[in-house]
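Dataset card, provenance and construction

Sequences and ligand SMILES were collected as paired inputs. For each pair, a complete structure of the chain with the small molecule in place was predicted and serialized as structure tokens. The example below shows a pair involving pyridoxal-5'-phosphate. Curators did not alter the output after generation; any descriptive sentences attached to a record were derived from the structure itself.
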Amino acid sequence: MYWKKLSHIEIKEVVFDALNKNANYRNQPILGVPGTFLDSEQFYPDAPFLKDAPFMSIMINNPNHIGCHTLSEESVLDIFSGTQQIEKELIKLCAEQIFKGDANGADGYVAPGGTEANIQAMWVYRNYFMKKFGAKIDEIALVYSQDSHYSMPKGANILGLRSIILDVDDNDRSIVQTDLETKIEQARDCGINYFIVVMNLSTTMFGSVDDIDRVAGYFDSTGVEYKVHVDGAYGGFIYPFTNPDSRYTFQNKYITSFTSDGHKMLQTPYGTGLFLIRKGFMEYVCTDEAQYIPGKDYTICGSRSGANAISIWMILMTHGSAGWQYKMESLCDRTSRICSKLDEMGVKYFRNPHINIITIKSGDVSKQLAEKYHLVADSYEFEAKWWKIVVMPHVKQGYIDSFLMELEAERNALVSETV
Ligand SMILES: *Cc1c(COP(=O)(O)O)cnc(C)c1O
């Protein structure tokens, strides 16, 4: 994995150059487009700081990235082809450098978030099974673990798919193999022959990473039609940098698509859920009726701000691959340091060593302490069984130290009570 770090000046040059290649509502005759610049009372274009603020400049020029720009050269017809080109380069960089795909092997776009990117994948595979194999909708199921994000049931509901939810082991959070086999055999007995399988490149609650080779290998051995989507909304911008032996790459033949959110680990603004998929699949969700869009539409959302794609590209360029790796490894180190302290105290928790999440058993930390430090519970409807710490960049060592001291005091008090 390698891409070079660029200086602020270099980044500015690329971004303003792209902006200049876009049409400009302010000085060009653009008579037919149902878009314009942002309201200039509020977003005045002559604010002096703008010339040093490429992201803000893109935002107020308001380019529309609509559809999927990696699919064809047709976006050159688009009046926003300058910034759309940066989005294409971003997709290429993420697919080929971060997820080790072959050259020009992936399509994708910057979706509003991980939720849409996940549902986009389900939509593609549902239509793929229906168009390619003549599958009926009730022969298709969505398979995911009980620790998966709620965008899975949401997507299943929207797309009319039935869900098969796999049990995980209570302690190590891995998918239970016997449960997987029983449920898939039962589904096949009920006439389900097509499976959309979602694998977690880290769950939100535990930071657990599904054993993709074991689970996808099982589907492969049964001879059913299946497609695997990876939900890397949380882990997509950390795990590939902290685990050099990651099985979550396009070199893994089981995987067809990825979600990877900029707005989780990468610290981009909300609105930056990346969707990546092997070439040859986006076509299954082409909306032919989108006649007024050069290149048609292939996405769920339709119009979206070009500034979002630019923000991801800018952050990746600001750090370079080595800088980002250093940053992610540092977060993991800080997480490991907390774990050693918890081990010393005998606190029970779950943690994947390549992810910056620690999930503590609720019996080992009081509700008051968890709430004081804004730990997040696994359930707000039922009594919490787990509390999690996410070691994000704002989680400084000082806060961690005070939390651990209070936890230790609380545990010592408990011990002396029971003596
Ligand atoms: C956050 C998250 C999502 C959903 O992402 P949004 O950007 O909030 O739509 C999906 N899956 C996982 C694992 C997540 O952590």
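Derived descriptions for this record:
The domain at 104-300 is CATH 3.40.640.10 (Aspartate Aminotransferase; domain 2).
Residues 234 and 264 are 6 Å apart (CA to CA).
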